């Protein structure tokens, strides 16, 4: 593990966040409006990872855009970013959702290691049918996936009750 500083982001970090997301083919829509909801992993003065969230409704947030730069993976940075977001969420929220692509095995393992559980279709429908923001967020992710993938990569949904 390497020594990483985690800090909040500000408007001046927007281009760095967008660059990191684009390099990793993650969606960038709405990032400019959500920039203050990102946490950054800093190593040697350089941003090497980030995690953001969107507030949905009724005490629910959705993790968005968890990424660690290519040369820095498998050093505990993703785990540290997830733990930071969970600690933040414990103060004001009761549930956290995450929607990794089915093909993102590393991201899925990280969520499972952090006590998130994968929701089945029926559970997801039951939860999302009560939450308009959840449906909108899921629909955005699905559209992004369909537009940027040749195999239609379905998005899985993970949930953590806090």
Compact summary:
40% of the residues lie in helices and 23% in strands. The mean pLDDT is 85.
Characterise the protein shown here.
This protein has a single domain, classed as Aminopeptidase (3-Layer(aba) Sandwich), CATH 3.40.630. By secondary structure, the protein is α+β, with helices and mostly antiparallel strands. Strand 4, helix 3 and strand 5 form a beta-alpha-beta unit. 28% of the residues are buried. The longest helix has 17 residues. It is built from 6 helices and 7 strands. The chain has a 7-stranded mixed sheet, sandwiched between helices. 40% of the residues lie in helices and 23% in strands.
Topology (SSEs and partners):
Layout: E1 5-8, H1 14-23, H2 31-34, E2 39-43, E3 46-55, E4 60-68, H3 77-92, E5 95-98, H4 105-113, E6 117-118, H5 121-128, H6 132-148, E7 158-161
Parallel strand pairs: 4-5
Antiparallel strand pairs: 1-2, 2-3, 3-4, 5-7, 6-7
């Amino acid at each position: 593990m390497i020594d990483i500083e985690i800090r909040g982001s500000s408007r001046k970090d927007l281009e760095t966040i967008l660059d990191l997301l684009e390099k990793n083919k993650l969606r960038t829509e709405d990032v400019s409006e959500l920039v203050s909801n990102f946490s950054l992993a800093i190593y040697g003065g350089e941003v090497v990872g980030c995690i953001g969230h969107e507030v949905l409704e009724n005490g629910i947030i959705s993790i968005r855009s968890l990424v660690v730069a290519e040369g820095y993976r498998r050093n505990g940075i993703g785990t540290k970013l997830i733990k930071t977001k969970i600690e933040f969420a414990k103060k004001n929220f009761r549930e956290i959702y995450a929607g990794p692509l089915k093909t993102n095995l590393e991201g899925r393992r990280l969520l499972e290691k952090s006590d998130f559980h994968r929701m089945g279709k029926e559970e997801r429908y039951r939860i999302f049918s009560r939450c308009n923001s959840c449906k909108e967020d899921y629909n955005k992710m699905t559209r992004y996936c369909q537009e940027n993938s040749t195999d239609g990569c379905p998005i899985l949904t993970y949930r953590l009750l806090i």
